[in-house]
Design a protein that fits this description.
Elements (H helix, E strand, L loop, with lengths): L1 H17 L3 H6 L9 E5 L2 E5 L2 E2 L7 E3 L8 E2 L1 H17 L4 E3 L22 E5 L10 H6 L19 H11 L4 E6 L1 H10 L10 E3 L6 E6 L22 H4 L4 H4 L24 H7 L2
Parallel strand pairs: 4-6, 8-9
Antiparallel strand pairs: 1-2, 3-5, 7-10, 8-10
The structure holds zinc ion.
Length: 283
């Protein structure tokens, strides 16, 4: 009898704890009414007291509103405003802003692995519009890529302003790193002059030719928010960048003898910091 009760108890407890927690975070339509705090790390965490990025700001427009991913730590919302103002002074008609985080952060039902703690933002390579876009336009207008078809260089959509906006973003003290396509990093390496310190934060990564991804550091004084290790010293215009253009990187050949990698497991609530349970439960 005791065994039956035990089995029954396990069965009842199992589905909730083993369920992919992305559905619970994806279903949260509003931020938690808590003090703003990023819990955990960029790809394993959540966001308390998230702030909503206004869908239309003085210097930005949020895109793909149906996704409800225009939420972030207040520091991220403030950063978008700062960068938007600088971008306008460079001659962009404002930023087109893609995904930030869900209202309570956490794993997403589709797309990104990171963007979980309200400190990541995707900003389109396509400059903004002087006119206010309709909701419908924000669903249907796409960004454009600034790299060539063979992904070895930037294409004719790349402008000096792109470089200046990336420089403005990387020079912001709140920013930890920015992910761009390797061809974009290479373009910057070749064209910027002696003022190169900011290049350290510009990091080559797959994709990222139609948007750049800004990652802020954990806000000062926060406990339980975990920064990534800082980028290596130097401007990164070196062999680590050349690797991205190598045959090994461009045409990876799987080793038939390598042990098979297990499929990535879906995150469950227990994988996240304990505070995330409270974030889900809060009003
Ligand atoms: Zn991103």
């Amino acid at each position: 009898m005791r065994a039956i009760v035990l089995v029954l108890a396990i069965c009842l407890a199992w589905p909730a704890s083993a369920e992919a927690v992305k559905y619970r975070f994806g279903a949260a339509k509003q931020a938690s009414s808590q003090q703003a705090e990023s819990h955990g790390s960029y790809a394993k965490g959540c966001l308390a007291g998230g702030a909503e990025l206004a869908v239309t700001g003085d210097s930005w427009q949020a895109m793909r509103l149906s996704r409800n991913r225009n939420w972030g730590h207040p520091e991220l919302i403030a950063f978008i405003g700062r960068l938007g103002t600088k971008a306008q002074s460079i001659g962009w008609d404002g930023l087109l802003v893609g995904d930030l985080s869900q209202p309570r952060g956490g794993p997403m039902t589709s797309g990104h692995q990171s963007h979980q703690i309200g400190l990541d933002a995707d900003i389109w390579m396509r400059p903004g519009y002087a006119k206010k876009l309709t909701r419908n336009e924000r669903e249907n207008i796409g960004s454009f890529t600034v790299t060539t078809g063979d992904h070895m260089a930037v294409n004719n959509r790349w402008t000096d302003s792109h470089g200046q906006v990336l420089k403005a973003a990387a020079s912001d003290p709140a920013v930890a790193r920015i992910f761009v396509h390797a061809a974009i990093k290479d373009q910057l390496c070749q064209t910027v002059g002696d003022d190169r310190g900011w290049l350290r934060k510009i990091r080559p990564w797959w994709g990222h030719n139609a948007h750049f991804h800004v990652r802020l550091s954990c806000p000062a004084g926060t406990v339980g928010c975990f920064d990534q290790a800082p980028p290596p010293a130097g401007d990164g215009c070196d062999a680590t960048l050349s690797w991205w253009f190598s045959d090994e990187a461009r045409n990876p050949k799987p080793d038939p003898n390598a042990p098979k990698k297990p499929a990535r497991r879906q995150l469950v609530l227990a994988d996240l910091p304990q505070a995330c349970e409270g974030v889900l439960a809060a009003q």
